[in-house]
Write a structure and sequence with these properties.
globular; 2 domains; mainly alpha
């Protein structure tokens, strides 16, 4: 059993959890809506859960489920009364039951998870309007695509063999699909945020969010818009392209860190140079922007099963080619494979190099240098896209900037390769 001091501390934290939830509920209630629980009731509900949990710990286990049934009965009664009027939402009643459970969790020494759940719950409750707006913007086809991806992942992933096979024994089906889920998840964050914010918040925000999903798609979209827009807007679209390419570098670092934290730590310094230059260039463009321009990008849903399967196949090919190149040609072969892979997709070579380094096939320096080289080549390709599609006004701005980004990334690659 906890000491009296621990009980007092945990009890105070339980009251704060209830107070936090109660404040949000009281502020979010409509004026004509009956209030089941607010700033006074929710702290009492969490405290009841906490006390019942303590009583259950000393032997009277039956107290906890009985109290939970009692709170549930009050919530049901409140909903029945409220449903007779114009308001039929049951959010507050469900949250009241959750508040009781959070108090009980704290009694069983799960204070940190309970506090985290309380904060997350309050955040979700306070985002009612934005979440409803997001639900309106996400189409049915996109929801079906996410569901199909999730079903395939949940059902198929546990069934995939967790062993390497094939040439050089580098193809692990479960690992490959797990990395597909990782890449798709990161891209999905950017995609959802783009759907919610990108269309109305200008090229800077669109560049940040689009860079999480696909910096190449941002480059294509903004280059086309720059050609169609007035010459004075070219600098604004250049800002979005530079930001997206900078976010791509940070995304690469995040993926490496997730797969192999040690490699991510050693990659942080060299990749900071091109990323830092990108931030400086974006700041210069931001200070010199001519006007306000809205931007809207059309991105593919990264959770579409076809897209995920294509990336999985691409990752398997890049992984196999990188391993074969290292076996037959050493580090030079890996660099050639990285340069070629970077022309199309930097994610595949990033996760391949990180995984090969994790398996001690590649040295950390070789893996990081190959990632930097792929990033440099990908930057070069995006610069070429902007030059070809974007028109003269965009060409004059993007050309020198992307050349500088490419050279800095290449120098970082050479320094890491030779160190």
């Amino acid at each position: 059993m906890p000491t009296n001091l621990q009980i007092a501390y945990n009890g105070a934290m339980v009251l704060l959890m209830g107070l936090l939830i109660g404040l949000e509920r009281e502020h979010s209630q409509a004026e004509d809506e009956p209030l089941f629980a607010g700033v006074r009731t929710f702290p009492l509900i969490t405290l009841i859960g906490f006390v019942c949990g303590l009583v259950a710990r000393v032997g009277s286990v039956w107290v906890l489920p009985v109290a939970l049934v009692g709170v549930g009965a009050l919530a049901v009664a409140s909903y029945v009364v409220k449903a007779r009027g114009p308001h039929r939402g049951a959010t507050t009643e469900f949250v009241a039951i959750l508040a009781f459970v959070l108090g009980a969790l704290t009694a069983f020494d799960y204070l940190i998870p309970a506090a985290a759940f309380a904060v997350v719950t309050t955040l979700i409750l306070s985002m009612k309007a934005p979440l409803h707006q997001l639900a309106e913007k996400i189409q049915k086809d996109e929801i079906y695509a996410i569901l199909k991806f999730g079903i395939v992942t949940v059902v198929v992933l546990p069934l995939l063999p967790n062993r390497a096979f094939g040439p050089f024994e580098v193809l692990n089906p479960r690992l490959i699909w797990w990395l597909v889920v990782l890449i798709s998840g990161v891209s999905m964050v950017g995609y959802v945020m783009m759907r919610f914010w990108g269309a109305r918040q200008g090229t800077a925000v669109a560049g940040i969010l689009g860079g999480l999903a696909s910096s190449t798609a941002v480059t294509f979209g903004f280059s086309q818009k720059a050609r169609e827009a007035e010459a004075s807007a070219a600098r604004y679209f250049a800002l979005g392209i530079v930001i997206a390419s900078t976010v791509m570098l940070l995304r690469v670092l995040f993926l490496v860190w997730v797969i192999y934290p040690g490699l991510g730590m050693s990659l942080a310094l060299p990749i900071a140079f091109p990323a830092g230059l990108g931030i400086v260039l974006a700041f210069v463009l931001w200070r010199k922007k001519e006007g306000q321009t809205e931007a809207k990008l059309e991105l593919k849903n990264p959770m579409e099963l076809g897209q995920a399967l294509k990336f999985g196949l691409l990752f398997a090919v890049v992984l196999l080619v990188s391993r074969a190149a290292h076996h037959y040609f050493g580090s030079a072969g890996v660099y050639v494979a990285s340069a070629l892979a970077g022309l199309t997709d930097v994610d595949a070579i990033t996760v391949s190099a990180a995984r090969l380094a994790f398996d001690h096939v590649l040295s950390p320096n070789t893996a990081n240098a190959s990632i930097l080289l792929a990033s440099a080549m990908n930057t070069l390709v995006k610069g070429g896209i902007a030059l070809v599609i974007g028109g003269r006004s965009l060409q004059r701005i993007i050309g020198p900037m992307f050349l500088a980004l490419f050279l800095v990334s290449l120098v970082a690659c050479l320094v890491v390769a030779k160190s």
